[in-house]
């Protein structure tokens, strides 16, 4: 309130890493998607950037450039400097996804020619400018995003991607997919090995449906997290181990399905194809600031994380993506019920089953399992989640059908308990005490 005039103020209740200022991912995505949608302009091939071939979506090219620490310029000729700065900050949040760090520290929301020498001394900068002279010097940048035209350009002077040991090892281990690495083949460009084309279509549909900024940011966060998990799977397959996975055998349950970890694919061919599509992007990311910062963050999180020997994300993804037989799904449901009790453990589970990914739907499917023990223990876990401070919101998101199944199982359990007590002669004793 100022002099009797109410002034609205936005106060964020949660701030993600690399989130600075009041920017809009929707605005950034729309800016560089409109011209691409009207007339696709092929990019010159670059292994780190054009992961879907010459027709890679401009936003994916931008995201790849940021992940692989390329020099990125946002040019806004005749535009207000504030609009240019907003695009730079939005790009930082885009690549970060609230998960990775190292972008805003080397971002220059607005700069000019007087600071070009200092700018060129910063590896992998993200800068906003309004002077069109920058466009005439492709040696100064690797990727240029022209805000007035909505076009993304790859520099003719960009340093080519080097062939790494990881790429060679992957091609040797998977000769049938060797030709798909790098996004340079016709097959890799047409088949969308990375899934990025389908992802961008989903993003644009969500924007057209006015789903809102929060939904778009959540989808990008999922994209970044998926990329880091695929990178971990790639490193484990090629190098034998990955610094992106910190786990242990604290919970030795003797079950392969429960003890597994990492990203989950529907089948092995899908795994190999997606890894082949991401090889160059992963190798380009492995020597960047955000990669090493992410490893440090994972190590810190691991020290305070509950259930260190159990990858709940992996287990939940198996329920979500794979066709499991009753015995396999039983192992997962029983493990969930056995180990998820405390406040922090429930929070950890909710983080891998967000409401944007159907919430408790896949857990609630345990209410319909053929094994009665699974149904009962799933109901017990859902009850604990429903009593949780945050979990109650997930509980409210369950369908009426699932809640009816929960109530039916509860009634059956109570009836069985009463019958058992009657057989043991405890019910009359309890009734006498109550009276």
Automatic annotation (TrEMBL):
The UDENN domain, residue ranges: 1-276
Pfam families according to UniProt: SPA
InterPro entries: Actin_polarity_regulatory, Tripartite_DENN
Biological process per Gene Ontology, one example term: actin cortical patch localization
Cellular component annotations (GO), alphabetically ordered: plasma membrane
PANTHER family given in the database record: ARF3-INTERACTING PROTEIN 1
Name of this chain's protein: UDENN domain-containing protein
Organism expressing this protein natively: Verticillium longisporum (Verticillium dahliae var. longisporum)
């Amino acid at each position: 309130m100022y002099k009797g005039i109410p002034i609205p103020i936005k106060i964020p209740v949660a701030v993600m890493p690399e989130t600075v200022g009041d920017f809009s991912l929707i605005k950034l995505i729309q800016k560089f998607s409109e011209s691409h949608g009207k007339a696709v302009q092929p990019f010159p091939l670059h292994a780190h950037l054009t992961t879907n071939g010459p027709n890679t979506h401009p936003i994916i090219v931008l995201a790849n450039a940021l992940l692989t620490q390329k020099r990125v310029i946002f040019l806004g000729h005749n535009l207000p400097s504030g609009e240019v700065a907003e695009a730079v900050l939005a790009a930082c949040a885009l690549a970060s996804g609230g998960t990775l760090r190292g972008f805003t520290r080397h971002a220059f929301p607005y700069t000019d020619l007087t600071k070009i020498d200092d700018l060129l001394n910063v590896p992998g900068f993200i800068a906003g400018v309004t002077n069109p002279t920058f466009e005439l010097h492709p040696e100064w940048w690797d990727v240029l995003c022209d805000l007035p035209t909505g076009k993304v350009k790859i520099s003719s002077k960009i340093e080519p991607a080097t062939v790494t040991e990881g790429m060679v090892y992957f091609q040797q281990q998977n000769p049938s997919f060797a030709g798909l690495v790098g996004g340079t083949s016709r097959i890799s460009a047409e088949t969308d090995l990375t899934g990025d084309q389908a992802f961008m279509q989903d993003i644009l549909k969500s924007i057209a449906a006015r789903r809102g900024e929060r939904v778009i940011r959540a989808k990008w966060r999922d994209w970044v997290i998926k990329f880091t998990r695929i990178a971990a799977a790639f490193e484990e397959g090629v190098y034998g181990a990955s610094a992106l996975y910190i786990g242990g055998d604290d919970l030795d349950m003797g079950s392969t399905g429960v003890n597994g970890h990492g990203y989950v694919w529907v089948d092995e061919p899908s795994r190999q194809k997606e890894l082949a599509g991401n090889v160059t992007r992963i190798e380009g990311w492995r020597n960047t600031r955000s990669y090493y910062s992410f490893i440090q963050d994972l190590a810190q999180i691991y020290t305070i994380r509950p259930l260190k020997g159990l990858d709940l994300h992996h287990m939940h993804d198996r329920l979500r993506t794979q066709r499991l037989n009753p015995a396999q799904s039983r192992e997962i449901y029983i493990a969930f019920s056995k180990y998820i009790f405390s406040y922090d453990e429930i929070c950890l589970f909710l983080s891998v089953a967000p409401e944007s990914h159907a919430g408790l739907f896949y857990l609630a499917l345990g209410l319909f399992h053929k094994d009665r023990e699974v149904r009962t223990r799933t109901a017990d876990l859902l009850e604990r989640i429903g009593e949780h401070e945050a979990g109650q919101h997930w509980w409210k998101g369950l369908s009426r059908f699932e809640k009816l199944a929960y109530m039916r199982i509860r009634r059956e359990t109570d009836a069985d308990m009463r019958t058992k007590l009657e057989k043991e002669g405890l019910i009359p004793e309890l009734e006498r005490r109550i009276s």
